[in-house]
């Protein structure tokens, strides 16, 4: 089977300044609050958020978070830039991998956030849509969490 690829960029205006957005977007506990789309859950198994560090998560429905995600951090320049990879597997089968870049810039009292994801699917083109839908759903949650964090 051929490897399918795509790249997409999401941009959002967020109500929090870059330092607070950085914390929401990189802290493993905070990422559990927004990282899974819809009603899915994100559970941290292991987290080492530093350059060269890895994280392992489970994601999916609360009663069966069947997807395992391994993250490896390559660049952390708080509070503006981060680069990491993520590999998703289920049942021991690698489904796809992505290179993710966060860019956070001050925008008035809030932030402009851009997330670029270059993704490769190992199981067909439908996995590309799953990556995109997952990030769109996660970002909708991130917006909700950011708005709820205004104090």
CATH topology title: Alpha-D-Glucose-1,6-Bisphosphate, Chain A, domain 4
- Rg over C-alpha atoms, rounded to the nearest angstrom: 15 Å
Count the beta strands.
Answer: 7
Helix content: 25-40%
Please describe what this structure looks like:
The chain has 151 residues and is an alpha+beta fold. It has a single domain (4-148), classed as Alpha-D-Glucose-1,6-Bisphosphate, Chain A, domain 4, CATH 3.30.530. The protein contains three helices and seven strands. It has helices spanning 18-26, 28-34, 126-148; strands spanning 4-14, 41-47, 54-60, 67-77, 81-90, 93-107, 110-121. It has a seven-stranded antiparallel β-sheet. A hairpin with a 2-residue loop joins strand 6 (93-107) and strand 7 (110-121). The mean pLDDT is 95.
Key descriptive features of the protein:
151 residues; alpha+beta; Alpha-D-Glucose-1,6-Bisphosphate, Chain A, domain 4; 7 strands; globular
Brief write-up:
With 151 residues, this protein is an alpha+beta fold. It has helices at 18-26, 28-34, 126-148; strands at 4-14, 41-47, 54-60, 67-77, 81-90, 93-107, 110-121.
């Amino acid at each position: 089977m051929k490897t399918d690829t795509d790249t997409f960029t999401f941009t959002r205006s967020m109500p929090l300044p870059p330092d607070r957005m950085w914390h929401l977007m990189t802290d493993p506990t905070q990422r559990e609050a927004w990282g899974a789309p819809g009603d899915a859950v994100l559970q941290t198994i292991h987290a080492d958020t530093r350059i060269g560090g890895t994280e392992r998560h489970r994601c999916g429905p609360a009663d069966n978070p069947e997807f395992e995600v391994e993250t490896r951090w390559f660049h952390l320049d708080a509070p503006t830039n981060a680069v990491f990879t993520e590999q998703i597997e289920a049942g021991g089968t690698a489904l796809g991998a992505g290179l993710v870049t966060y860019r956070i810039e001050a925008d008035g009292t809030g932030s402009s956030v851009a997330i670029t994801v270059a993704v490769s699917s190992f199981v067909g083109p439908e996995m590309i849509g799953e990556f995109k839908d997952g990030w769109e759903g996660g970002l909708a949650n991130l917006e909700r969490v950011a708005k709820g964090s205004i104090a």
